Amino acid sequence: MLPQELIRLKRDGQPLAAADIKTFIQGIADDRISDAQIGAFTMAVFLNGMSREEVVALTTATRDSGHVMQWDSLNLPGPVVDKHSTGGVGDLVSLVLGPWVAACGAFVPMISGRGLGHTGGTLDKLESIPGYDPYPAPERFGDVVKSTGVAIIGQTGNLAPADKRIYGVRDVTATVESIPLITASILGKKLASGLDALVMDVKVGSGAFMPTTEKSHELAKSIASVATQAGTPTNALLTDMSQPLAPCAGNAVEIVETLELLRGERPNSRVMQVTRELAVEMLMAGKLAHSREDALSQLEKALTSGAAAEVFARMVRELGGPGDFMERSDSYLAKANVVKPVYAEQTGTVQRIDTRAVGMSVVELGGGRLRNDADVDHSVGFSAIVELGTQVDRQQPLAYVHARSEDAAERAAQQLRAAFTMGEGEASIDELLQKTYRGEAL
Ligand code: URA
Fold this sequence. Notes:
Blueprint: H1 3-11, H2 18-29, H3 35-48, H4 52-63, E1 81-85, H5 93-102, E2 108-112, H6 122-126, H7 138-148, E3 150-154, H8 161-171, H9 179-191, E4 197-204, H10 213-229, E5 234-240, E6 249-250, H11 252-262, H12 270-285, H13 292-304, H14 307-318, H15 325-332, E7 338-342, E8 348-353, H16 355-367, E9 381-383, E10 391-392, E11 399-403, H17 406-419, E12 420-423, E13 433-438
EC number: 2.4.2.4
Keywords: Glycosyltransferase, Transferase
Protein name: Thymidine phosphorylase
């Protein structure tokens, strides 16, 4: 079918056949379809939506538009599983989760991204580690996954190339906020890494990518069922992002926290509760655990024995980082020139946090990007961020700011104060683990 005919059908609210969607998406990857046609198509989808079958077809066509990884030839002695998140602030889950489930026998080829908008990027955090190479050759990637159980790397050129063009056009044609297009975009890339199972972490709250709770639920449901129908069993957890997940936001500061968590410190912190729940899902989906209790007991052992920390250390070493990073991280991680406490203007209880604003403040400190070719300052950010419901006063700061200069620290301190709403009485705190959507096969 000619591209203009497919666009016309969607414009008029008519159903599209899977084969025609596939031809159109392949035409995008091959540069036979113009940006104008992509823009018209995405706007038609934005306005008229897509049936579940159409989203599955769009997802598989996006996945198959480039290289799809195969793991069979490596004869891995365990399942290939991964997790993806819609992103947030202080969301260092991937850094702990990958090594943790690998220490329980899973294989995790994790393709991660850089910071996007107010949300931090796993790759930017890992690049705080001197020498860490997030773009190894494909064979090396496979070798590290096999020998270590996990490799966290960046997206290489030929994975789901159609999405790269479609996303670029959506970004400038006001068509980003469409559940069918977001589903196919996220899953097209993720499923190209040849997974046996996937777990999705969809965030809800003031630091979430989706603008409302209803939209977060809709996306979680869509991702779980579309991925499962596309052949990769997937569950989606809805988790709270109405405050930073870990008590820090930035790059090196999140690596410091990761190392402490992997050493078994603060096992019941909010970030560890979310990480543990995702890990349970991954072990069960990968058939490494026969029950939730079994998964929890394996995870406990992997953490307290130091096995999870050892896997992280090995991944860092295999991907070019220092061999003694775990022991001497302090001498390797960049430190900010200025580190100082930020006190609230008034004493009281933290009632609300504008988490998006905290993330944007980290970007402005230099910890994220204002242009996509800019460098990131790994040393800056916030640490020891207090949680909702904490009583703050002249002794208890809201957080510590890590900045390049006194001026930058002062600007960030003002932004942080403005992001925190103080008051009297108990704060209302949303549930951390809100819901699980289980994918259903056709
Ligand atoms: N992340 C993606 O990869 N794609 C989207 O459409 C939105 C977020």
